Amino acid sequence: MQHDCIFCKIVNRDIPAKIIYEDEYVIAFPDVSPAAPVHILVIPKRHIPNLTEVSPEDAALMGHIMTTIPKIAAEAGLADNGFRTVINTKDDGGQTVHHLHCHVLGGRFMKWPPG
Ligand code: 5GP
Ligand code: ZN
Fold first, then answer.
1. How many Å apart are CA 99 and CA 93, to the nearest integer?
2. CB-count burial class (<10 Å; 0-12, 13-18, 19+) for 107
3. What is the pLDDT of residues 84-110, one digit of tens each?
4. What predicted TM-score, i.e. pTM, was given to this entire model?
5. Residue 101 β-bridge partners
6. Is CB count within 10 Å lower at the N or C end of the chain?
7. Which ligand neighbours the alpha carbon of 4 most closely?
8. Closest ligand 1 atom, CA of 98?
9. Which ligand is nearest to the CA of 43?
10. How far is the CA of 28 from the centre of ligand 1 (A)?
């Protein structure tokens, strides 16, 4: 738990979010400022600042996140048409919240390349 981290606060229920999935290791909730009709954030409960801070010991956790995302996406109705999964890392990646999170975006066609 990092005390100045808004996503740690969501994990701890110190600030509200509509938790749409939770297990021992991850939670998922809608992005407060959605960039698509469906915009879900999937985060590890443990505070990892970004992808550069992931270590080999986190391999199972990262695998768990990746295998959980399609279930969350299917639950959100995105299984048939698909969705985009994004991890922004540090400044050039456009990361604004420094607790590792996967964006799951769908409900419309997602253009490529991103801006
Ligand atoms: P990043 O830019 O770091 O990849 O993504 C951070 C995301 O977190 C943004 O899309 C932003 O809208 C979202 N966000 C920031 N603060 C909150 C919050 O308090 N609650 C929720 N649900 N989303 C947030
Ligand atoms: Zn955190």
1. 14
2. middle
3. 999 999 999 999 999 999 999 999 999
4. 0.98
5. none
6. C
7. 2
8. 3
9. 2
10. 12
Burial pattern 41-54, b for ≥16 Cβ within 10 A else e, equals: bbbbbebbbbeeee
CATH code for 6-106? Answer: 3.30.428.10
- Residues 62 and 115: their CA atoms lie apart, in Å, by 26
* 56-76 pLDDT, tens digit each: 999 999 999 999 999 999 999
The backbone torsions φ and ψ at residue 25, rounded to the nearest 5 degrees and listed phi first, read -115, -25
* Pocket, ligand 1, Cβ cutoff 6 A: 6, 15, 17, 29-33, 41, 88, 94-97
Q: Is 3 a catalytic residue?
A: no
Cα 72 from Cα 50, distance rounded (Å): 21
The whole-number pLDDT of residue 3 equals: 81
Domain edges within the chain: 6-106
